[in-house]
Model the fold of this input.
Amino acid sequence: MSTYTRILLAADFGENYRYVARRAVDLATRYGAELSLIHVVENIPTGDAGYGPIVPFEIDLTEQLVEAAEKRMTELGEELQVPVERVRVEVGSPKHEIIRVAEENAVDLIVVGSHGRHGIGLLLGSTASSVLHHAKCDVLAVRLKDE
Amino acid sequence: MSTYTRILLAADFGENYRYVARRAVDLATRYGAELSLIHVVENIPTGDAGYGPIVPFEIDLTEQLVEAAEKRMTELGEELQVPVERVRVEVGSPKHEIIRVAEENAVDLIVVGSHGRHGIGLLLGSTASSVLHHAKCDVLAVRLKDE
Done:
């Protein structure tokens, strides 16, 4: 059977993102796979819904979020020794962007943190779950332990 | 970080179950983990819903399914060199039984085949998705390639 050769870590910056990151690094090491990182800045629902824009100056806000995310992802990349060209910040729907980048880069395993389905998670679903439903490659959901 | 020490393969007998099985064996080898197998025979909805039993002789039918499953699981266990005491057939809801057995045996990774969400899968959801939502450990969804 083929081994994993390209692993994509979908990083958020929740409390335990380093735990998920270490799991991805551990897998990449054991498989001799190339590790890439992605973080997706979610689109902020703005624009005119008939009663004026919900958030004014939305472009600046998104830009600020992207800048902050790029700073943290650069740090995470250095910490995990992932070269800068394999560290990406995208803007959009996490599910869509993770899957798009995975497909474009022939990723064979996506590693994503998984929160329990309770509270607001039950209502919103989770990135792990969405990615699982739509990815064309394997998905490792790393259960976060603090819940 | 802790490595995986107990891996549970949730086996179905779909077209590509051997592909998922090989992935589980490969992971168990790389992590030096103990591999267990489970197959769940789904409860057949029987009983009197007010207009008589849907399936007569339901006990025999379940027994026959369990016997057939035990035969195949014994063969799979031999093929994967998993000792017989770590090969189980349970009856009930796949999600519940997989999660119950995982918790009772302190499993830290469940490996399950993942079908695309289309056709009837879209309607019914999938075992992979249900397990992901409720497991207290990591879940690897192995994407089946023939879809």
About this structure: The longest helix of chain A spans residues 58-80. The radius of gyration of chain A is 16 Å. Chain A is about 40% helix and 20% strand. Chain A has a mean pLDDT of 86.
